[in-house]
Amino acid sequence: MSTTQHDMVNRAEAGGHHDHHEPPFIRKYIFSTDHKTIAKQFMFVSLFFLVVGGLLATLMRWQLGFPSQPMPGGGVFPDAMMAPTPGGAIMLPEFYNSLVTMHGTIMIFFAIMPLLVGLFGNLLIPLQIGAPDMAFPRLNMASFWLAVPAGILMLASFAVEGGAAGAGWTSYAPLSASGEYTGVYLGQQLWLVSLAVLGFSSLAGAVNYISTVINMRAPGMTWFRIPLATWALFITAVLVLLAMPILAGALIMLLFDQTIGTAFFLPEFDGEPLLWQHLFWFFGHPEVYILILPAMGIASEVISNRARKPIFGYHSMVLAIIAIAFLGWIVWGHHMFQSGMNPMLGTSFMISTMAIAVPSAIKTFNWLATLWKGDLHLDSPMLYAIAFVSLFIIGGLSGVYMASTPVDVYIHDTYFIVAHIHYVLFGGSLFAIFAGITFWYPKMFGRLMNERLNKIHFLLTFVFYNLVFWPMHNLGLQGMMRRIYDFTQYEYLQPLQPMNRFITICVFILVASQSLYAISFFWSLFKGEKATNNPWNSNGLEWTVPSPPPHGNFAEMPVVYRGPYEYSSPESDTDFLPQTTPPRDRPAPAPVPTPQGA
Amino acid sequence: METEARHKHPPYMLVWGVLFVLTMVEVFYAFMDIPKVYIAVGLIIMAVWKALLVALYYMHLRFEPKRLWVLAASPLPLVVILLTFVLFENF
Amino acid sequence: MTTHAAAVGRAPMPGMEVYNLKLGMWVFLLSEVMFFTGLIGSYIILRFAHPEHFAQPGVVLNVPLTAFNTFILICSSVTMVKAFAAIEQGDQKGLKRWLLATIALGTLFVGVQVVEYTVLASEGFVPMAEAYHAIGRGNPHDGPALGGPLYGATFYTMTGFHGTHVTIGVLCMWFVLWRASKGAYTAQSYGGVEIMGLYWHFVDLVWIILFTIVYLI
């Protein structure tokens, strides 16, 4: 079979089953194979988990702001979590450990990752490359429906005896391997199984994304005409593909230690706790790039469009994404500087970690250069995107401190690290997610979001976010450690109590402010201004089809003539030039209808 | 296409024969009275040889576009990295 | 297919020049490489860290039996590739015959492994740390323990997950055989058989590495 026929068949297979009638509700909305519907499914479930993760953090902050004081309304919690007293209930240390663990786990695996990879990967990849759907639509459906039981298992672990996992999201052995250390038995096992199931979901997604981007690009969509969002998602999928299985192996070995009685990580039988750390972080470091690369891709799209300027240095942006992904495989030991590993490794990891700041810096300067002298439209997606850049810079800079092994002696496992994590994950990833949801909301739902509500949300979030997390740099440098139930037991930390209380109050306001985005989101679904195909005057292929796009996306196979960032181009009468607009001097070819099913 | 014609007659039985012979050689080699390091290195070479035969001929990699070779080889540097760095813990 | 020809709207970009199903299976197999790397890598690392936990080849594990099993699996790769060659020629009967042979050989492999596990466990070679008391093949029952708990833990995890992959492969092959009996595969459309083959050969490939590293070194 010739290549052409192969590819035609590829596109037809992926186009799915083209019914000439409406599919029943359950096939259209529940067990859908349409990538756009699956994207929305990921979005709604992930936003739910984002709220759960935020509430868990709020509970944690109560304890840190008002240590061992009765929490009003705490009586609703089971006695195993909070001990009832007059005025409410006092949080128990074991529950605090679970909160710490589950906040991190849920935010990383069930909120940020599925939002960036599940929502934006599914939504954008086929549309931006001109494909009718993913390469394997049924596998895509399976990917979502595997993530759901994983989430249920994770939430269920709160309800079992012993409570939810309490060994940190990093689950270091032997603390995590034996319930006698944390008091958590079944909860820890459910945590492992849940992540293993989620791993399958992620893997299915990765196989789909990689195959789709390689094989299903529309004519003229060369590699260096692919938008940066899709580039970032493609490289992210490669990281998921190769890193997740290492986590799977480690999870299995830890599960065996907990249940069967093996001793991979138990020192009393000559097991190696450091082996867990090496395996976990060999996965864990690519994981954090999985959590930031798609955000960078989204930021590039929004900034370029809203500045009405080509992204500065498109090729170097692509190469920087690839460089970050490459280098990301040889830096994992910077999470282990204080673990007791071979000091020679400390040196090599320090060097590679400092090196990886370079491609990130290249991207940062390119965003700044894109903004420079641009025709800036400071609407809410742009505000979120610019905030992403500024907060990511702070997070990245604190990372350079941590990369230095001698400095890390003092700041490892302190709130300095917590500050860094949240500057890159909240200041970085989450702000980019807000930007992306707002930017592609019209494409998903056919309506524009409420700009005023979004702007108020942006302002409140930006201000209170910084009030919460900036001081944590100072707290860390003054010696406040992570994951601690009651730091006031240490006299030298007692002066930090007022700052902690201040942070807690700011957290309450920060969390409450998020309701504005939720209101904007749901209000706009019904009352938002109806969107045209291309409300942002953007160049990508996704903006050439209706909002929302029909099943199969493109009625005619798109033909691509240029890259996606031709804003303010002299070749155009307007300030944008879509990828599929034929050049003035060449007539458009006869349209080829998209093949409809085999 | 030329590659299609070629892969209708790859030497499946010859490869099977070589795999069989290599397996027998491996088993006898493992019990020879020579320093362990030579046994380990020799066995790894033979195992990799067998694995390559399976990959190139049974999985048809030999007859696929070179890009697929690059894709197939992509995890190997990661394998080396993981093992090298972590084995350093013992020295 | 050049970019230029593609750009005039006749066909999508050439991509990997391999059809979707095959590309997807290769991509999936890369993740499997990483999975077994994690398990086998852990074995190597633990063995370097605690060599006294492990025994010399043949002392605890049954090399002749497993060498035979290795041969079985290699033969099953041959039968699988013959099934593929058959459907490339449109030979439906050949396809089904060779698929059945592959299923039989795969099942035999798993069966032998189950027997092997049973005998090893009865000799005290178990994955549980506290219960580990391997006495080696042919030793009197009261012999000293050979190796240590890490040996049992790593052995059963690595070979067990490989065996699980073989079992899943056999089940998938029943499905492929069923589809073949419905005439789903032809000389023009044999993707399902080809990707089944790719998975099966990969499982054989992993065993080739495992057998060498675990049983012979």
Q: Oligomeric state of the chains?
A: heterotrimer
Outline the biggest β-sheet of chain B: none
CATH architecture of the largest domain in chain A: Up-down Bundle
Structural class of chain A: mainly alpha
Low-confidence stretches of chain B: 1-7
Pick out the low-confidence regions of chain A.
Answer: 1-9, 12-17
**Which CATH class of the largest domain in chain A is shown?**
Mainly Alpha
Q: Distance N terminus to C terminus of chain A? A: 16 Å
Taken as a percent bin, the fraction of beta residues of chain B is under 5%
Helix content of chain A: 55-70%
The helix fraction of chain B, in percent, is over 70%
| Individual helix count of chain B | 5
Report the major sheet of chain A. 2 strands, antiparallel
The run of helices and strands of chain B is HHHHH
Secondary-structure element series of chain A: HHHEEHHHHHHHHHHHHHH
Give the amount of beta strand of chain A, in percent. Answer: under 5%
Provide keyphrases for this structure:
heterotrimer; B: 91 residues; mainly alpha; 5 helices; flat; C: 217 residues; Four Helix Bundle (Hemerythrin (Met), subunit A); 6 helices; 70% helix; elongated
Structure write-up:
The complex is a heterotrimer of chains A (598), B (91) and C (217). Chain A is built from 17 helices and two strands. By secondary structure, chain A is mainly alpha-helical. Chain A has three domains: 34-284, Cytochrome c oxidase-like, subunit I domain (Cytochrome C Oxidase, Chain A, Up-down Bundle); 292-530, Up-down Bundle (Cytochrome C Oxidase, Chain A); 532-598, no CATH class. Chain A has a two-stranded antiparallel sheet with strand order 1-2. The two termini of chain A are 16 Å apart. With 91 residues, chain B is an all-alpha fold. Chain B has one domain. Helix content of chain B is 75%, strand content 0%. Chain B has helices spanning 2-6, 12-30, 36-58, 66-73, 75-87. The relative contact order of chain B is 0.10. By secondary structure, chain C is an all-alpha fold. Chain C has a single domain (16-216), classed as Up-down Bundle (Four Helix Bundle (Hemerythrin (Met), subunit A)). In chain C, α2 runs parallel beside α6. Chain C starts with a helix and ends with a helix. The relative contact order of chain C is 0.16. The model of chain C is unreliable at 1-7 (pLDDT under 50). Chains in contact: A-B, A-C, B-C. The A-B interface holds A 2, 242, 246, 274-275, 278, 282, 329-330, 333, 341-342, 344-345, 348 and B 1, 74-75, 77-78, 81-82, 85-86, 88-89, 91.
